[in-house]
């Protein structure tokens, strides 16, 4: 079809349209219901080419989810990098989960930057080095984790602390109100570039963050995350975690972690899910147990009046159905859930078309 006069004029003046940006790759979080809450798909996950913020209280599983995404990137032929500002990453636990931490192979980068700006500079160097030299396939994702935004020290503030430590500080080097807002100004200046790099270099930047309580808030959500408003604007997905104790009698054995996708530019927002996370490092996130609970809550497993699951002419307790599902490959369960979702969407679309035709 011949182009219109308008299209020809615009093409001549501006060139062809840039390729339409949409998410082509998803990085598995390790938990299918969370994948669905983020991407609308059980076999989806975190979006490549975007910034994602995960924030919540201590030990709620932020680093666990980020590590799962790094593992997913490596399995797709990509590179994983962790910028540790909290000095809290345990590579042994990550390797036990499946991370390839062999520095000689190059698919793992671990740095402990001193300042926020140093992290930004390292991100740019890492991305440009990999992509400009074509060190991995163009479609292989890069996942960079920054842990955490709240503990990143702006360079202006770090320089004052250095002078204090050296004993060379002057009156002008005393901390003041400007230092309290230095991180917010740093994010405002740098996050536009970080978002552009994510798109340009096919990188998923996961920013882990802490939570704070806003004083004087009588109505609505009083929690917020440090770093100013820029991360909230430039993150395509923001996931808030919360946790409550799991006990076996009086013994604390883990946490029930709840997640809410409070911002989502790649799927409908405000989706929620939860899972059981155990302190036993050999168990961690019990995917099958939590997945069965999700399926029961969503009515994906049929229950009778007594609460037992009915499959064919057999009846199972919750613990029995968990053990039954442990014998199945997780990929098979996810495929079955994906088909249920697909069938639901097809049915809803057909009903919508039928209503439109009737009108």
TrEMBL record:
Record GO terms (molecular function): ATP binding; ATP-dependent activity, acting on DNA; single-stranded DNA binding
Pfam families xref list: RecA_N
InterPro entries given in the database record: DNA_recomb/repair_RecA (IPR013765), P-loop_NTPase (IPR027417), RecA-like_N (IPR049428), RecA_monomer-monomer_interface (IPR020587)
Matching PROSITE patterns: RECA_3
Tree of life domain: Bacteria
Keyword Manganese: no
Presence of keyword Ribosomal protein: no
Cellular component per GO, a single term: cytosol
Regions that span the bilayer: none
Single GO biological process annotation from the record: DNA repair
Keywords: ATP-binding, DNA recombination, Nucleotide-binding
Domain RecA family profile: 216-286
Record PANTHER family: MITOCHONDRIAL DNA REPAIR PROTEIN RECA HOMOLOG-RELATED (PTHR45900:SF1), RECA (PTHR45900)
Stated family: Belongs to the RecA family.
UniProt protein name: Protein RecA
Organism expressing this protein natively: Kluyvera ascorbata
